[in-house]
Amino acid sequence: MKGERTNRLRVATLWLSGCSGCHMSLLDTDEFLLKLAEAIDLVHSPLADAPKFPSGVDLVLIEGGVGTEHDLERALLARSRSRQVVSLGDCAITGNVPALRNPLDREAIIREVYGVAWQPERLPALLPAVLPLHRVIAVDLFIPGCPPEPERIRTVLTAIIRGEAPQLPQEMLSFG
Amino acid sequence: MPALTLTIDGRLVSSRAGETLLQVIRGNGIDLPTLCYLEGLSPRGGCRLCMVEVAGREKPQAACVTPAEEGMVVTTGSERLQRYRRQIVELLLAERNHTCSVCVVNGQCELQSLAARFGIDHVRYAYLSPRLPLDASHQRFGMDPGRCVLCARCVRTCDEVEGAHTLDLRGRGVRSCISIDLNEPWGRSETCTTCGKCVQSCPTGALFEKWTARGEKVRAPELIPRILAWRETHER
């Protein structure tokens, strides 16, 4: 029922400059999704029908680098409304593939991709460089990988649901 | 050869005179991390990952270039050393464009596995994202300076194993780059023998065989010491 108080975690996910592969990896956790559904309320996500980022969020998983002004606004809002922020995957942690543009000239890329049809008001403005999430907001946890293997996501979420401090073992830490 | 006695991590060990600390430490089963060291090549002391603490010396010492001495008391894994090693790898990651997910050596890279070993789940420094053009002019090999850690293993392999000295370092500090001949495109080099040993010595994806995609580089860094050992037995 709406407004009902529960002890379930209020979890959100966010998709910034990335390919959504990290979200796919989350969906790839198979039967763990059933456990997850019992333990959490998904209050905002590209996977859920809830357009506004709500307040009082316990945990937000953020996929993607911070590449546009829109990304930056959403990252700041998510931080201000969430108790715990997780960088999900290499794009959020290092910039990864979206950051391949960083050594190049931003205007030249826009001209190359959009040509003369470029209408700046139609799309969010690109930041000068794609930044790792922890360069713009405080991040509590990192799950590396491109995409992070489902096992890594499961390990972290299982610990959080149990109220423990998540610790990924060395073999689950590699980038790429 | 006279024997020396040292203390490593509280354990008494013996070594032969002329051995480096790295040889003694690894010879005693301690897995000291290295990056610029490759067995068989002259040690360089460049990456500083093998640094250890020697009692009585203020600064950590690079084990690969420090000779073992009688009575040395060595620590290989103090909290300070671990902190420094982590910092070194983070700075290497921030210095160039190491995008593991699209790299030919993803899953087999020495830099990537060192980062995981030191618990690096993010880099605390700002990425420099330098613009470093790729050299794809060679018929068989490519060079991406964006993935280079300046370990100079390829330079030493080309010089000491192949005897060609096509490769060298140019520039200073973080702007240093591997240079072909007198800074020629690789494809125009008159000294390169196309032996490919530089590619095998490279710890990252900076040197690679063309037409390989993500994770497809076949690595055999043990090839270099094997060639040298083979020569030693056949030249006698």
Describe what this molecule looks like in 3D.
The complex is a heterodimer of chains A (176) and B (236). Chain A is α/β, with parallel strands linked by helices and 176 residues long. Chain A has 6 helices and 7 strands. In chain A, the strands form 2 sheets. A 5-stranded parallel sheet of chain A has the order 2-1-3-5-7, sandwiched between helices. In chain A, strands 4-6 form a two-stranded antiparallel ribbon. Chain A is globular. In chain A, 41% of the residues are buried. With 236 residues, chain B is of the alpha+beta class. Chain B has 2 domains: 3-77, Roll (Ubiquitin-like (UB roll)), CATH 3.10.20; 84-235, Alpha-Beta Plaits (2-Layer Sandwich). Chain B is 25% helix and 15% strand. Chain B has helices at 21-27, 79-95, 110-117, 153-162, 197-201, 223-235, and strands at residues 3-8, 11-16, 51-54, 61-62, 73-75, 141-143, 167-170, 177-180, 207-209. Chain B has a 5-stranded mixed sheet, with helices on one face. A two-stranded antiparallel ribbon of chain B has the order 6-9. In chain B, β1 (3-8) and β2 form a beta hairpin. Chain B starts with a strand and ends with a helix. The mean pLDDT of chain B is 96. At the A-B interface, α4 of A face α3 of B.
Lay out the secondary structure:
The complex is a heterodimer of chains A (176) and B (236).
Chain A: E1 9-15, H1 21-27, H2 32-39, E2 40-44, E3 57-63, E4 66-68, H3 69-81, E5 82-88, H4 90-94, H5 106-114, E6 126-131, E7 141-143, H6 150-161
Chain B: E1 3-8, E2 11-16, H1 21-27, E3 51-54, E4 61-62, E5 73-75, H2 79-95, H3 110-117, E6 141-143, H4 153-162, E7 167-170, E8 177-180, H5 197-201, E9 207-209, H6 223-235
Parallel strand pairs in B: 1-5
Antiparallel strand pairs in B: 1-2, 3-4, 3-5, 6-9, 7-8
Shape of chain B: globular
Number of strands of chain A: 7
Share of helix of chain A, binned: 25-40%
**Rg over CA atoms of chain B:** 19 Å
Low-confidence stretches of chain A: none
Assembly type: heterodimer
Mean pLDDT across all residues of chain A, rounded?
Answer: 94
- Estimate the mean pLDDT confidence of chain B: 96
Distance between the termini of chain A: 42 Å
Tell me, briefly, the overall form of chain A: globular
Distance between the termini of chain B: 21 Å
